[in-house]
Amino acid sequence: MSQRYATQDVDVSPLGQPLHFEFSQRRASNRFLKAALTERMASWSATELPARGIPTPELINLYRRWGEGGYGVILTGNLMIAYDQLEAMGNMIIDLENEFSGGRFEAFQQLANAAKQHGSLVIGQVSHPGRQTEQRFQPNPVSASDIQLITDQAPYAKPRPASMDDIEDITRRFVHAAVYLQKAGFDGIQLHGAHGYLLAQFLSQTTNKRTDQYGGSLENRARLTVEIAQAIRAAIPDPQFILSIKINSVEFQAHGFTPDEAKELCEILDRNGFDFVELSGGTYEEMAFQHRRESTRMRESFFLEFADRITPALKRTRSYVTGGFRTASGMVHALNTVDGVGLGRPICQECRLPKDLLAGTVQSAIEPKLDPQNFILTGAASGAHMHQVGDDQQPSDMSDEAMVGVYMQCLGQWVQKVQEDFAAMTFTGYPRLPKGHPYQVRPGESQPWEISGYQPKTGLWRFALCLALVPSIMYFVW
């Protein structure tokens, strides 16, 4: 029997209430949001750029399982808009040259269809890393200004300030991705304006030192985001296509984005027709995914106290907060502040967690026997779980100390391979755990590997490893 987080019984019915989006007139079936994760399970080639970023059968299957999990909204993970501007190897990619036909497009169609089978709204989170792409991927990155990212992990090149041509190209790429997603069957797009990625680099005074119309006041720093949103609306006449954004509620660093600025930004987003805003926080320099005070621990969410100050600015735009939720009690109480709750790390081991919470069969997530403050350790475990689900294996129980021991051995092998492969760039994914039991299918769910009769890969591929020790693993601390 899995060990779960201690909690108090609570009426979960508020989490099951539908949520209406004012601008698109769409409705989410409940208040659960599957937060974006960096799955790193798309196709990859170190040398052939057009071979990168295509959803694989394993990735499609993972979204099929999340689609069975009872989420009102499912967000995809960190989808890139250029072959050589990446958060990590294995990101999904929609490049400007990608047409609305062919194998890549069909794979995106399959992913959307798999995730929507049980009524979830499926939204593609689209991002440009800006200065937060490793030097080995892009030696000449673009950003709001020429402020270099310095970390103790992977090296990042000094960026160049975006020219007007760069800004036009960036906008065109976001718009193309939105149209691509809409034609592939997605219900909407989320602009990634948090965690220090390009849009956040324009929004934050720590990285935006511009003196033109894209710098200075918050209205100017938000100009690129607003222009992209307006261009998407112009390119997609369908009013039911959802437009959303993820933003930082706080950055926890000197001169960083503040809750007061987030509140002002939300007023701008509301005026510009964003259906919902997802509140998060932190940057590569200052990770935010831990409980900094006892007050946040008691409320579970890392960012709920900042949401208290921000959400009153929203009139028609709905709000979600992501980060730290583990119990039904914490999630229900969060609805006093926001409209919905985002889940990430726990749902890698329990794809059906929302369904089980609403059914009353569980009151909290499985509690892994791992240091919850070590987001690298727990994030890599979440990645291992995603590989297992993608291969239609039952996720290993990380509340079992014996299984944690197996995981730690795999993690050690992983780190060694990561170091050996750094220059070659041939390994993608996360630590691979030994093959276990088949995925435990419930009534009404798809049988394992129904999609095109595909069978999971075996052999050496099972030990493919990735760069978990870079800060981009921050996606998994939720």
TrEMBL record:
Record key words, sorted: Flavoprotein, FMN, Oxidoreductase
CDD domains: OYE_like_2_FMN (cd04733)
Domain NADH:flavin oxidoreductase/NADH oxidase N-terminal: start-end pairs: 40-354
Gene3D superfamilies (alphabetical): Aldolase class I
Domain of life of the organism encoding this protein: Eukaryota
A Pfam entry, by short name: Oxidored_FMN
Molecular function, one GO term: oxidoreductase activity
Family to which this protein belongs: Belongs to the NADH:flavin oxidoreductase/NADH oxidase family.
Name under which the protein is recorded: NADH oxidase
